Task: inverse folding
């Protein structure tokens, strides 16, 4: 009897240790098992992970292809995490085939490695996690900072979240690296930290997922292609496994195969999903705080962690960046190609000053310490990164996106492309907007900073285009500059800066600035689509330029009032100092004809017999005309503008009491 009890206990413990899915609800369990069976039958490159999980022979062709990519592939860590998982899921069948290849490549920053990326957030955990697991199981020699570096990374994600926030590109890979540790790490602390980080990452994925299983998020890093189709992508596999929303996947994705073969407890993640949400979600920490957070690390690791938060050539870190590029001969690394023209002239001594002078591009890659406004109501979502590097060059950032049922609506600055997937993956926005969102309404203002020629001609395109697919809507309505769409019971309205197209895409040219508005809703909020249209039609919009004399700022001001929601912003050099109080003292200036290509007349009738100052500034805020008049006559004032460049100019007429301002449009 004692022997039977002992045998039973051993078997029971074995079953529990290998079937910890019992911690998850039965519905999820069945969906997970069905997913595994479906993927094994239908295919998908990641199915070799599920084959190892099920104990069936791994597809030899797929395995050999992944092994062949390890030495030369610039994203070989994507394959390495799958191979490591196969090693752990399998009983040793493939050790002799896989281990020599995995041991042939470096796992951290090294001299003259121009192929591999070790520093963006998802790559970091794939490299570090794989290195650690190979060390624990096979005794692989690791560098002397990996232990502390890995624990620091995991704690950082749990406490502050993920820098590549809400990314449908990077979330599945980051999760896969974390799940390997959560499932297989022998170190109890690392296992627990990886479990918590995995759950946090999945919580954030579901935060912006609507009730149709669609994830079109505002994002710190994302590709335009991720906003084209609602289903069939790697992140959709994760969403379907957790919620059952959307279309059942037809093949194994990397993230899906890892989650389906994982022991991760996910009930808390599943229950975190909610159909409605209206919140301001804070992610990360300030750049200055990052210096303190990472202060105990080695100089190389500290720099890499700064890079993972997007701080590559920011003035506060550029000296360390340049020093590491020199020390490790990384200038030829593909990730630094954009800044290659600086190589002959930059060094650790002059780097900070040069970076400051190129602030339009050197600062805005930073993606730590954001406030994200999130509104979700059943099938619609609207999310925005509030006041995020406005006017500067963007790097894969999508600062405001609406999801209406199964279609994405958003704006993007830069060269207009008919196919949005042809846009540059590295710069989703050539210049970032100022965004403010209240509930289901967002105000987007564009006012690009000048870009230096050294960074290339692709950044000279300032147009703003609207991502909008007519075919995705059941109804599309034009109401002046407003464009409205209905998909089933979900609604969206976009106030465009102009009515027109560029390359057959709804888009507007930017000479000085422009403002867009996005609003979402549904039948539960507004009743009929007709009623939604009526509310939009009654909205009030204001836009103006003026000179703030208190701070000598050229200010761009916009305001939207719609459905009892009011949002406004005055964009100057330092709008928090200047405020918008001066607008009440600013009046409209008559300019005729407007547009014009040779001569305009200014209406100075309000200033007769008074002294005034006339100033004209070009779209970049540079003064192109100035005149002081001691006593204004009754005769109209003419300006000859035939030699001016085409664009929008700000004209201000000022005396001691009043400022008149107006836009002057110089046509071709």
Result:
């Amino acid at each position: 009897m004692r022997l039977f009890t002992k045998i039973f206990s051993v078997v029971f413990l074995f079953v529990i240790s290998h079937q910890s899915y019992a911690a998850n609800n039965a519905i999820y369990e069945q969906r997970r098992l069905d997913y595994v069976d479906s993927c094994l039958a239908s295919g998908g490159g990641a199915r070799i992970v599920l084959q190892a999980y099920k104990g069936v022979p791994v597809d030899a062709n797929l395995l050999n292809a992944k092994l062949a990519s390890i030495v030369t592939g610039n994203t070989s860590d994507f394959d390495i995490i799958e191979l490591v998982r196969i090693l752990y899921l399998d009983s040793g069948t493939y050790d002799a085939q896989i281990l020599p290849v995995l041991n042939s490549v470096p796992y951290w920053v090294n001299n003259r490695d121009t192929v591999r990326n070790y520093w963006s957030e998802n790559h970091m955990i794939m490299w570090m996690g794989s290195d650690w697991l190979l060390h624990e199981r096979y005794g692989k020699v690791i560098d002397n900072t990996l232990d502390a570096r890995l624990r620091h990374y995991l704690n950082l994600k749990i406490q502050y979240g993920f820098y590549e926030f809400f990314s449908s590109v990077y979330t599945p890979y980051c999760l896969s690296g974390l799940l390997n540790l959560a499932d297989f790490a022998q170190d109890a602390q690392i296992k627990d930290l990886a479990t918590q980080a995995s759950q946090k990452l999945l919580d954030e994925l579901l935060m912006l997922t609507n009730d149709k299983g669609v994830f079109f998020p505002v994002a710190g890093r994302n590709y335009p292609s991720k906003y084209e189709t609602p289903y069939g992508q790697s992140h959709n596999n994760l969403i379907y496994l957790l919620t059952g929303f959307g279309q059942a996947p037809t093949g194994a994705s990397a993230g899906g195969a890892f989650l389906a073969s994982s022991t991760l407890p996910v009930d808390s993640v599943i229950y975190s999903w909610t159909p409605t949400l209206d919140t301001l979600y804070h992610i990360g920490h300030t750049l200055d705080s990052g210096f303190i957070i990472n202060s105990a690390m080695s100089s190389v690791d500290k720099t890499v962690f700064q890079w993972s938060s997007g701080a590559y050539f920011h003035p506060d870190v550029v000296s360390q960046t340049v020093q590491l590029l020199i020390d490790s001969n990384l200038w030829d690394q593909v990730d630094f190609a954009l800044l290659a023209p600086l190589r002959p002239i930059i060094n650790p001594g002059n780097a900070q000053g040069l970076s400051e002078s190129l602030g339009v591009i050197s600062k805005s890659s930073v993606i730590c310490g954001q406030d994200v406004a999130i509104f979700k109501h059943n099938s619609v979502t609207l999310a925005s990164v509030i006041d995020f590097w406005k006017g500067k060059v963007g790097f894969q950032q999508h600062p405001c996106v609406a999801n209406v049922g199964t279609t994405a609506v958003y704006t993007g600055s830069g060269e207009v492309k008919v196919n949005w997937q042809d846009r540059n993956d590295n710069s989703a926005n050539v210049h970032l907007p100022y965004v403010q969102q209240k509930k289901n309404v967002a105000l987007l203002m564009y006012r690009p900073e000048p870009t230096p020629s050294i960074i290339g001609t692709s950044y000279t395109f300032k147009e703003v285009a609207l991502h909008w697919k007519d075919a995705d809507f059941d109804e599309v309505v034009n109401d002046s500059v407003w464009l409205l769409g209905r998909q089933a019971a979900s609604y969206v309205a976009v106030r465009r800066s102009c009515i027109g197209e560029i390359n057959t895409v709804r888009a507007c040219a930017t000479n000085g600035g422009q403002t867009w508005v996005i609003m979402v809703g549904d039948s539960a909020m507004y009743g009929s689509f007709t009623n939604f249209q009526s509310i939009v039609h009654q909205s009030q919009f204001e836009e103006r330029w003026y000179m703030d004399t208190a701070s000598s700022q050229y200010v761009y001001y916009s305001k939207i009032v719609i459905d009892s929601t009011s949002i406004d912003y005055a964009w100057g050099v330092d709008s928090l100092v200047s405020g918008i109080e001066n607008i009440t003292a600013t009046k409209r200036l008559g300019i005729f004809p407007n547009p014009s290509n040779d001569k305009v007349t200014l209406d100075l009738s309000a200033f007769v017999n008074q002294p005034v100052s006339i100033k004209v500034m070009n779209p970049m805020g540079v003064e192109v005309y100035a005149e002081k008049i001691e006593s204004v006559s009754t005769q109209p004032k003419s300006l000859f503008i035939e030699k001016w460049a085409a664009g929008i100019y700000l004209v201000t007429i000022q005396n001691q009491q009043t400022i008149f301002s107006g836009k002057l449009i110089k046509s071709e």
